[in-house]
Amino acid sequence: MRSWAARAGALLSALAIVFTAQPALADATPGQAGGEQVAGTIAAMSGSWFTIQVAGRRTGVVNAMVDTASALTEHDYPYAWGGGHFEAGVASAAAATKGHRRSSAGFDCSGSVAAVLAGAGLWPPGAPVPSDAGVIAQLLHQKLIARGPGKGPVEVTLYDHPGVHIFMNIDGRFFGTSDGGGGGSAKGGPGWLYDGARDAFSAAFKQYHVLPSVLKGITTYGQALTFRTDEGAGLLQAAALGDRVVVTYAPGGSATMVASALDYVGALTATGTVASVAEGGFSIQAADGSSIAFSTGASGLTEGLAAGDVVEVTYTASGSDLLARRITVTAGPPAAPEGSDPPGAWYSGAEGADGRQGPREAPRR
Hints:
By secondary structure, this protein is mostly beta strands. The chain has four helices and 21 strands.
């Protein structure tokens, strides 16, 4: 992986392909309108895509690394310059640049290493991946690795030639897109390497080991699944990292998955008439006369909402805070009787013959 930082912009046109660390969508269930459903926790998102981490079995960090590396090997991904950088653990293909052809979705060297780290919980699944040197710098900053090779029967060592190449050793087995021995995948992609690992003994490659205290940890080995969505549909408008969700999806083009609905685990529904709208929240009056206040944060859910609208609110509760996730207006404010002032009217300007100021439409959000 060469001169990554100079060409990082090319990844903006990357085609994301889901990397499945276990048999694909083993826990998927039939969803609405013929779609499939899968539950997980939002790990990364942007305007038109998001990644969820699906719950998996509890296992040791090293075992999770081995399982992820084996899954990558079995899939037989091709080598793709810049592949795996858009989202950790997700194969991708960068647009063609000088010296690099556009290729099928796959991984490059640092994308491969980051995918293994993400599979073991040592790199945020779905998060961007920097250059090889950037990967090392972040792991050092998080105190997950230290300089020098690993020792003992349980060890993980990273070999990095800054700006040129990176690969790793997991319990004595080398993994990556190459280790200098000339073996590995015929497509040049990520896989287990049994070829002598010549580069492991080169002075050009700096060695770093994952701390023993980290390797003794327990992690969750599950799938990282990425979905596309129509940005204009507002599916992610009220979503946040860490939300537990159920995704309804259907297959899209180029081996992608397209989300059609996003439901929040534990969500509740309330109906009523909008009593007030303010920045960051609103309140409704329920049929029994009670008042319910909701927060919206900076989601923009209340845009166009007005007092008097009859709404159905889907929300989640965190302590006493009720966070609105979706607002459906089922009816507008009732029409004003003929000759009366419209609901929400206020007065400004010159006084009329009766001493009142003239009506002006209330501002709407």
